[in-house]
């Protein structure tokens, strides 16, 4: 049988990943995950694999060990292990009462943050997604979608996204799409609220090619894929794209570095605050508050910084509390066994 992908580099494979693959394992890239199984692409095309016992045990101890879309994994019959990730989009897990990270996508090069021009661009939401994106290790690009419906002041968006490219795109007219193309072997993920136009954008980038390779929806035969799952797709001109369902409540998890990149100008101003540990709330000699006063820094931007900082600190405190609880439990077990030993 002829290989579908004789050269795995079109799927993003390279020497770095190859170095962590054991000799008797086959490499595969995860396109979609389900409970206990994954759809993967190998040199021979798409197949479904089940998790090995060892992988299940590792995942029970730490959910982050579970494969996610975009992962490179090692197969030997079953899915044996997840190869070290080069980038990972992690949000706060949703299990009540427990703080843990949930990996949304791995090994992505570019994060497209889709924010619709209509009903109106929400800069705070863009900043939240940017924190996740910077933290992941991938390069964020902000796409103001549905640009045919309203014109948006991109400079205002750019001011909320230092270091990131901002573009207006329309899947309806094709505006801006040429600049959003993904080179062969590179992977992009599209994040954004429900209805932001993510799936329409993916379909527009795919053109007719996607219809040929993805299942045609029987009811209307239009070949559109509906986003229920996160899914990695191979575009006709070689790039890889991960579509995600609209995210409700994207909690920040361990995103302090990401936040400082989103608000880099506040960090620079803070260097000039009188107090090293200034909270930029009411302190005398606060350079950040002075910048707001002088109209240099939008008040909205500082408010957003405060909000996301508080959230990150709260998440960090919850994680620490859990670690502390574990330590206490450990200590109690040791204490108990000592007591047992001292018994006559
Ligand atoms: N006018 C216009 N409408 C668009 C454009 N892109 C998407 N839409 C419409 O916006 C609606 C939502 O688009 P989707 O692509 O389904 O949005 P999504 O982000 O994938 O939504 P979820 O799957 O719920 O996360 C649909 O009715 C699209 O037809 C665009 O560029 N211009
Ligand atoms: Zn200050």
UniProtKB/TrEMBL annotation:
<keyword id="KW-0694">RNA-binding</keyword>
<feature type="binding site">
    <location>
        <position position="278"/>
    </location>
    <ligand>
        <name>Zn(2+)</name>
    </ligand>
</feature>
<feature type="domain" description="EngC GTPase">
    <location>
        <begin position="106"/>
        <end position="248"/>
    </location>
</feature>
<feature type="binding site">
    <location>
        <begin position="192"/>
        <end position="200"/>
    </location>
    <ligand>
        <name>GTP</name>
    </ligand>
</feature>
<dbReference type="InterPro" id="IPR010914">
    <property type="entry name" value="RsgA_GTPase_dom"/>
</dbReference>
<dbReference type="GO" id="GO:0005525">
    <property type="term" value="F:GTP binding"/>
</dbReference>
<comment type="subunit">
    <text>Monomer. Associates with 30S ribosomal subunit, binds 16S rRNA.</text>
</comment>
<comment type="function">
    <text>One of several proteins that assist in the late maturation steps of the functional core of the 30S ribosomal subunit. Helps release RbfA from mature subunits. May play a role in the assembly of ribosomal proteins into the subunit. Circularly permuted GTPase that catalyzes slow GTP hydrolysis, GTPase activity is stimulated by the 30S ribosomal subunit.</text>
</comment>
<keyword id="KW-0862">Zinc</keyword>
<dbReference type="Pfam" id="PF03193">
    <property type="entry name" value="RsgA_GTPase"/>
</dbReference>
<feature type="binding site">
    <location>
        <position position="273"/>
    </location>
    <ligand>
        <name>Zn(2+)</name>
    </ligand>
</feature>
<dbReference type="GO" id="GO:0019843">
    <property type="term" value="F:rRNA binding"/>
</dbReference>
<dbReference type="GO" id="GO:0005737">
    <property type="term" value="C:cytoplasm"/>
</dbReference>
<dbReference type="InterPro" id="IPR004881">
    <property type="entry name" value="Ribosome_biogen_GTPase_RsgA"/>
</dbReference>
<feature type="binding site">
    <location>
        <position position="280"/>
    </location>
    <ligand>
        <name>Zn(2+)</name>
    </ligand>
</feature>
<dbReference type="GO" id="GO:0042274">
    <property type="term" value="P:ribosomal small subunit biogenesis"/>
</dbReference>
<keyword id="KW-0690">Ribosome biogenesis</keyword>
<comment type="similarity">
    <text>Belongs to the TRAFAC class YlqF/YawG GTPase family. RsgA subfamily.</text>
</comment>
<protein>
    <recommendedName>
        <fullName>Small ribosomal subunit biogenesis GTPase RsgA</fullName>
        <ecNumber>3.6.1.-</ecNumber>
    </recommendedName>
</protein>
<keyword id="KW-0479">Metal-binding</keyword>
<dbReference type="GO" id="GO:0046872">
    <property type="term" value="F:metal ion binding"/>
</dbReference>
<keyword id="KW-0342">GTP-binding</keyword>
<keyword id="KW-0699">rRNA-binding</keyword>
<feature type="binding site">
    <location>
        <position position="286"/>
    </location>
    <ligand>
        <name>Zn(2+)</name>
    </ligand>
</feature>
<keyword id="KW-0547">Nucleotide-binding</keyword>
<keyword id="KW-0378">Hydrolase</keyword>
<dbReference type="GO" id="GO:0003924">
    <property type="term" value="F:GTPase activity"/>
</dbReference>
<dbReference type="InterPro" id="IPR027417">
    <property type="entry name" value="P-loop_NTPase"/>
</dbReference>
<keyword id="KW-0963">Cytoplasm</keyword>
<feature type="binding site">
    <location>
        <begin position="145"/>
        <end position="148"/>
    </location>
    <ligand>
        <name>GTP</name>
    </ligand>
</feature>
